[in-house]
Specification:
With 204 residues, the chain is α+β, with helices and mostly antiparallel strands. The chain has a single domain, classed as 50s Ribosomal Protein L5, Chain: A (2-Layer Sandwich). 33% of the residues lie in helices and 16% in strands. Helix 2 crosses helix 5. The chain is elongated and about 60 Å long.
Length: 204
């Protein structure tokens, strides 16, 4: 569905100085400090990020539009999302029709990407060190965004905060939901790990 698939292939080449910063920070800084604070027996016991899920909904952008116009909108969104994450997104369809929400079975409602390993760390590095500081009126990530296992779910209102996107070329600004999934056992462990990786988490 993504027209300019070369953008996806080239995404990893953008912001070369960001590559592996997050992963290196985890290995060299986070692991020793987590062991010191929580008393893990070895580095293999230290929690780690297992995957990052990025998704977006088309929602109001395609509501009331004709089929051709809807297609143009979600294909443009898919292209931008692919550039941001460096991987081809997967379209999400409605599983049933709901009249109240004006959705039909099979209608495209959004797109999602699951990132792991290198692409996961590359994305997080650009998110934390470049994109979030560019967010209007950003004051840090609220601790309420973490669940009991330390997984973080954070909403981004405008995708144009990412450096790969040129705002003057964007027709439709859309939001993203980023979920950072970890194998931590507690909220405290998850928050501490992300703090050590540079995530700007608010202090209560």
């Amino acid at each position: 569905m993504v027209k300019n698939i070369e953008f996806v292939k080239n995404a990893d080449k953008l912001n070369k100085n960001m590559t592996n910063i997050m992963e290196e920070k985890y290995k060299k800084q986070a692991i020793p400090k987590m062991i010191e604070k929580f008393g893990y027996k070895n580095k293999m016991s230290v929690p780690k990020i297992t995957k990052v899920v990025v998704n977006t909904g088309f929602g109001k952008l395609i509501g009331g539009k004709g089929n051709d116009e809807q297609k143009n909108i979600y294909e443009a969104i898919l292209e931008d999302l692919a550039v941001i994450v460096g991987q081809k997104p997967v379209l999400r369809k409605a599983t049933k029709s709901i009249a109240g929400f004006k959705t039909r079975e099979g209608m495209f409602l959004g797109a999602a990407v699951v990132l792991r390993r290198k692409r996961m760390y590359d994305f997080l590095g650009r998110l934390v060190y470049i994109a979030l500081p560019r967010t209007r009126d950003f004051r840090g990530i609220d601790q309420k965004s973490f669940d009991k296992k330390g997984n973080l779910t954070y909403g981004i209102k405008e995708h144009i905060i990412f450096p790969e996107i040129f705002p003057e070329k964007v027709r439709n600004i859309f939001g993203l939901e980023v979920t950072v999934v970890m194998n931590a056992k507690t909220k405290e462990e998850g928050m501490e790990l992300l703090k050590l990786l540079g995530f700007p988490i608010k202090v209560k």
